[in-house]
Every structure is written in structure tokens, then in C-alpha cells.
Sequence to fold (221 residues):
Amino acid sequence: MLVDLRSDTVTRPAEAMRRAMAEAEVGDEQHGEDPTVRRLEEMTADLLGKEAGLFLPSGTMCNEIAFLVHCRQGDEIINDYTGHAVTNEGGGPALLAGAMIRTVHGHNGVFTAEQLRGALRPKSRYAPISRAVVIEQTANYGGGTVWPLRTIREVCAVAHEHGLIAHMDGARLMNAVVASGVSAREQCATLDTAWLDMTKGLGAPIGAVLCGPAAFIEEAW
Ligand SMILES: *Cc1c(COP(=O)(O)O)cnc(C)c1O
Fold:
């Protein structure tokens, strides 16, 4: 048997997944009446320890919609220079949220609280407002590097100390859970918003779930 290792996105729905899709109980999602979508959103929110979840067609949409809700035009998002939102979202943060990204040079996609501190703008009438920071778990272009729990906590602490929103691109968060033995809930505890991809190694053809406070999810919808 051949194993295709080009990407974990080449995984395909198994027989059982196709059957579950075909037989899923459905309803009008606009009225919050699709029990299967609701269950997926609730399960994911619970897994990440957040109040609410929102099913979206892609992880890219999770990032971009989160930035849209979190930022005003001209705001600055801090991200590692290898971050997916920097390299693989078609300039989406600039196009959609009108936000700029200030990159930090972490080690294999993981940066420190000190590096975040160094990237923050001093409050000034002239400077863009540092609004949000992105932690990518695992760091895709860092070779799948796992952010240690301590680093996550330290980065979030500096972010919150300065009024920034801490957002996790958790496309492969569950890989980090397996590798570190630290639950998704614990890893996300200090994050304001976080999401999980269903298409990375899990076989689903589309989909990701964005999670956070209920008011945030309401606005994101
Ligand atoms: C794949 C990926 C995304 C985007 O997810 P899609 O579902 O493909 O849009 C975002 N961030 C990271 C780290 C990814 O690997």
C-alpha cells in the first residue's frame, strides 16, 4: 500500500464518515435548527473549553473572520513570519479586516513572550494599534513544532497585559494534544479565540470550527 505524505489534506472520508454524512439528521442552520451542525459546534467548543462554536467551510475563514471581528482598519496583528495568515491567506487580513501584520522571527514558528513584548507598539497617536496576537498550534512551517504550554501562557499573559486579543490558529491543535499529552482545553485556556480544522489528517472534505465567547461567535456568524 502507498501512503501519500505530500500533505495531511489528502486524507479522504472513510466509508463510515460517508455513511454518517449521508444519514446525518439535518435542518435549517439559519434558524439554528440543524442538530448535526449544532452538535459539532457544541462538541468542539466543549473540547476547546469555549462558550460557543461556529462551523465554517474552511480554517482560512476562521482566521479571517476572527480578524474581522477583532480588528478595526489600521490595527496590527502580531504573528510569526511563517504563520499561515502571513504566507497562505492571499493577504486576507489586509484585504478583509484592513489590518496589517507585524511579523516576529520565532524559532520554528514559535516565538517568546519577550519577542511579543518587543513587537508591541508604544501607545502613540501615530502608531497602529497592536490588537491581536496569533499562536499557530502546531506551527505548520515550523515543521509541525508544538508550542509548549508554558510559552502559550506567557505569550497570552503579555498579550492581555497590553490589551491584545490572543487568537489560536489551531488547524492541527489535536496533533499537539497527542504529542504533548496536554488537553486542548488546557492549551486554549488563556486564548480568547481558537479553532480546529476538520480537513487536516481527519479525512473530512471541508470544515473547521471557530470557538470563543458567545458574543464573539454571534458577531462572527
Ligand atoms: C490548513 C491551514 C489553515 C487553513 O485551513 P483550510 O481549512 O485549508 O482553509 C490555517 N492554518 C494552518 C496552520 C493550516 O495548516
Observations:
- The CA atoms of residues 60 and 89 lie 7 Å apart.
- Strands lie at 52-56, 76-80, 100-104, 130-136, 165-170, 193-197, 208-212.
